[in-house]
Amino acid sequence: MAGAKKSEPERRSDILAAAKLVALDGGLETVTARTVAAEADLSSGLVYFYYQTKNGLLHALLAQLLETTLDGPEDGFGEDLLADVALREMITTELEGLHTQRDEVDLLFQFYFFRRSIDFRDQINTGLRLYTDAIHPVTDRFAREHDLDPDAFRSTLVALIQGAAIDVVRRPESFSAANLLQVVAALASAAPRTSERTI
Q1: What percent of the chain has pLDDT over 90?
Q2: For the chain, give me the number of helices (H) and strands (E)?
Q3: 142 to 16, 133, 139: CA distances (angstroms)
Q4: How many Cα atoms sit within 13 Å of 195 on the Cβ side?
């Protein structure tokens, strides 16, 4: 049962991977030291050694989910592109990635809506704030060129992406990133540039 000797980071990674599988199979409520240990083929004691409590394990799982699903564009993304092109590429990447991250997004919603602890909600809200910060440079450039309020534009875009995330969880079979991108493109083309406005 102990298996080959692994480093602490490897063991932590194995435990989190097992916790994710248990959560995906039966929901967050089924994540316990016992179920995770069984999935990882480890002792419950080893799970407690690395994560102390069930909440400690869940917080670590949530941190991993936030890191992989709310990562946003890398620093400097789109600086070499026109603002319109950078925005389109960023939105395309975000929307097309939703299908492959459906299970992770579902778990994020479980954390937010079914785990009543404010700690989990605070952790998710911090992740959402960091995500919003990551898209700032791209959205601000576009907003400036189209004479839009940057905060309002960014807020609307985040709401669209979050709504799409809800949709991919609710209706994965009918979710279409391509259709959403078509709508976004139509909306973006309808926004007049500052130079086109009459004074």
Answers
A1: 70
A2: 9, 0
A3: 39, 15, 5
A4: 1
